[in-house]
C-alpha cells in the first residue's frame, strides 16, 4: 500500500470513529452511490464542538454555531462562538480560520476579504483545486470518498501539508490538521460533538493583530521597550476594545515586570511575576482609545519566559 493510501486509510478510520460521537446527526449533506458528496445546507442554530490544539498554546474547546444565514447579500452564513471569552481568545490567537463568514455555495472561508475554497463541491475522488489559507497557497486533492466522508490532502511549495476530512453526515469537518515543512503540527482541529437548535447568545469578535512578542531565557537584567500605533480597523472603523493574551513563567531566581502605557503615560496593563511564579493563558481586555502605546518588559535572572499578544476586537452578537 502506498504512503498516501495508507495515510488516507488512517484518516478514514479516524473519521469513522468521530462519526460515532454522541449527538451527531445528519445535516443536509448527501453522498451518492457514485461516490460524490454534495454541499450541505446549514440551518440557524446548527453547531459543532471542536478541540483546537497548537504547539504554542494550551488546547481549547469552542462551540461553533450558525448565527446567521443571510450574510454577504444572502450568499453566506455567519459562524460564531457560544462563549464571548472563547470568541475573544480566538480573535487574539487567530488560529481558527473557520469563524465568520462561510459561503453557502461551497462552505468557503474568508481570508483577507476573499472567499477561499478549502472544499470543492461536489467532491469526488481525484478532484483537485487550489486555495489560500494561513497566507499559504495550497494545492488540494480528494484522496478518497467513502460513505459520508471525503478525505482531502493539500500541499504547498515548501512541503507544508493539510490533511482534513469532510463528513456530510455532520455537515462539516470531522478533523483538520496543518503540518509545516518540518512536520510540526501547527493546528489540530478535532470534532467532539455536534447538534442542532442552539439557543442563547453567540459571538464573533473580528480581530486585528496589534502587537506580539516572545522572550525566553533573556539573561540577567534585560529590558525590552517597544512602541506601537493603534489605529482603527481598515474597513470597520474603531475597535470596541483591545484584547491581550499573556503566558509568563519565572525560575526560582528570576522576576519579570510588564507595563503597557498609552501616549499620556497612563498605565493600561501592569504585571509583576516573582521568583518561581507563573501565569499561563491569561486573557483580558483594555478599553480602546486610538493612539500610541509603549510596552516595557524587564527581566532579572536567566530562567524566564514571557509571551504577549495584543489584538483589536470588534464584537458582534446574536440571540438565537
What does this structure look like?
The structure is a single chain. The model is unreliable at 1-27 (pLDDT under 50). The chain folds into two domains: 3-199, no CATH class; 205-319, Jelly Rolls (Sandwich). Strand 11 (149-155) and strand 12 (161-167) form a beta hairpin. 9% of the residues lie in helices and 54% in strands. The strands form five sheets. Strands 6-5-4-3-14-13-12-11-10-9 form a ten-stranded antiparallel β-sheet. A four-stranded antiparallel β-sheet has the order 15-22-17-20. A four-stranded antiparallel β-sheet has the order 16-21-18-19, with no helix packed on it. By secondary structure, the chain is mainly beta. It is built from three helices and 22 strands. The N and C termini lie far apart (49 Å).
Uncertain runs = 1-27
Instruction: Give the SSE order as H and E letters.
Output: HEEEEHEHEEEEEEEEEEEEEEEEE
Largest sheet: 10 strands, antiparallel
> In DSSP terms, counting alpha (H) and pi (I) runs of 4 or more, how many helices?
3
Structural class: mainly beta
How many structural domains can be distinguished in the coordinates? 2
Q: Tell me the distance between the termini.
A: 49 Å
Helix content: under 10%
Mean pLDDT: 88
Amino acid at each position: 500500500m502506498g504512503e498516501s493510501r495508507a495515510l488516507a486509510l488512517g484518516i478514514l478510520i479516524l473519521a469513522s470513529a468521530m462519526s460515532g460521537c454522541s449527538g451527531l446527526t445528519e445535516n443536509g449533506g448527501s453522498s451518492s452511490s457514485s461516490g460524490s458528496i454534495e454541499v450541505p445546507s446549514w440551518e440557524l442554530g446548527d453547531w459543532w464542538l471542536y478541540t483546537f490544539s497548537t504547539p504554542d498554546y494550551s488546547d481549547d474547546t469552542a462551540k461553533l454555531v450558525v448565527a446567521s444565514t443571510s450574510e454577504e447579500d444572502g450568499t453566506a452564513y455567519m459562524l460564531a462562538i457560544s462563549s464571548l471569552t472563547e470568541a475573544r481568545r480566538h480573535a487574539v490567537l487567530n488560529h481558527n480560520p473557520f469563524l465568520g463568514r462561510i459561503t453557502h455555495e461551497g462552505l468557503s472561508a474568508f481570508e483577507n476579504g476573499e472567499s477561499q475554497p478549502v472544499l470543492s463541491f461536489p467532491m469526488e475522488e481525484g478532484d483537485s483545486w487550489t486555495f489560500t489559507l494561513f497566507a499559504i497557497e495550497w494545492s488540494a486533492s480528494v484522496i478518497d470518498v467513502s460513505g459520508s466522508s471525503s478525505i482531502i490532502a493539500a500541499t504547498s511549495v515548501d512541503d507544508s501539508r493539510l490533511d482534513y476530512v469532510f463528513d456530510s453526515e455532520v455537515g462539516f469537518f470531522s478533523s483538520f490538521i496543518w503540518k509545516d515543512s518540518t512536520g510540526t503540527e501547527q493546528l489540530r482541529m478535532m470534532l467532539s460533538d455536534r447538534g442542532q437548535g442552539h439557543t442563547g447568545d453567540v459571538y464573533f469578535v473580528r480581530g486585528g493583530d496589534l502587537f506580539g512578542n516572545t522572550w525566553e531565557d533573556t539573561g540577567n537584567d534585560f529590558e525590552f521597550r517597544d512602541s506601537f500605533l493603534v489605529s482603527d480597523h481598515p474597513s470597520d472603523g474603531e475597535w470596541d476594545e483591545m484584547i491581550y493574551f499573556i503566558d509568563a513563567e519565572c525560575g526560582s531566581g528570576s522576576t519579570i515586570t510588564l507595563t503597557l502605557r498609552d501616549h499620556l503615560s497612563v498605565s493600561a496593563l501592569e504585571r509583576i511575576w516573582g521568583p518561581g511564579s507563573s501565569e499561563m493563558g491569561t486573557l483580558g481586555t483594555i478599553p480602546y482609545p486610538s493612539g500610541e502605546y509603549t510596552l516595557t518588559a524587564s527581566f532579572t535572572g536567566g530562567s524566564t519566559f514571557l509571551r504577549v499578544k495584543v489584538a483589536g476586537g470588534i464584537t458582534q452578537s446574536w440571540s438565537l
